[in-house]
UniProtKB/TrEMBL annotation:
Residues 3-164 form the Flavodoxin-like domain. It comes from Nocardia aurea. This is Flavodoxin domain-containing protein. InterPro entries: Flavodoxin/NO_synth, Flavoprotein-like_sf. It comes from the Bacteria.
Length: 175
């Protein structure tokens, strides 16, 4: 089975979660991890599971201005042209039965105070025709630029491992 992880990361926190998810999925899937900028340059290859994630900016998915603001606070170059929001909004509808999952990073505060990029990505995935394999998942950071809250990398790996096992079992049941 094949999985593709498409992520957007400003300070490396979401990228670290994407890498942990790749490890967790790797038990059952051949996994490719790409940035949203890379994904926007070519058509989506055929995959059994699309995993999409980004950081929470102003209660949801990033926007051009929030990416620009992040770029100004970072010493590392940040791609600001396209984010998860634009990539999914412009995505072609998929065939019935296509499976996806959304994740995000957000401040370690109550979700009603922070919002959730994962929830926004999940809505856009459903709008594009994907069936969500599991509810969107948030992973926590201590401040706007990080670091990740202690244990979040392992939690992401474990979450992805359980997801991979469930998807593998689901595939076996559909044969």
């Amino acid at each position: 089975m094949r999985a593709r992880i498409v992520h957007e990361s400003m300070y490396g926190n979401t990228a670290a979660i994407a890498a942990a998810i790749a490890v967790g999925l790797g038990e059952y899937f051949s996994v490719e991890t790409v940035t949203v900028a890379e994904a926007a340059e070519s058509p989506l290859p055929a995959v059994d599971l699309l995993v999409v994630g980004g950081p929470t900016h102003a209660f949801g998915l990033s926007r051009p201005q929030s990416r620009q603001d992040a770029a100004e606070r970072s010493e590392t170059p940040i791609a600001t042209e396209v984010g998860i929001r634009e990539w999914l909004r412009d995505a072609e509808r998929v065939a019935p039965g296509a499976r996806a999952v959304a994740f995000g990073t957000r401040l370690a505060r109550p979700r009603w105070l922070t919002g959730s990029a994962a929830r926004g990505a999940g809505k856009l995935l459903r709008r594009a025709g994907y069936e969500l394999a599991t509810p969107p998942m948030d992973f926590l950071v201590e401040s706007t630029t990080g670091p990740l809250t202690t244990g979040e990398v392992e939690r992401a790996r474990s979450w992805a491992s359980r997801l991979a096992r469930a998807e593998a079992d689901r595939g076996a049941d559909h044969r």
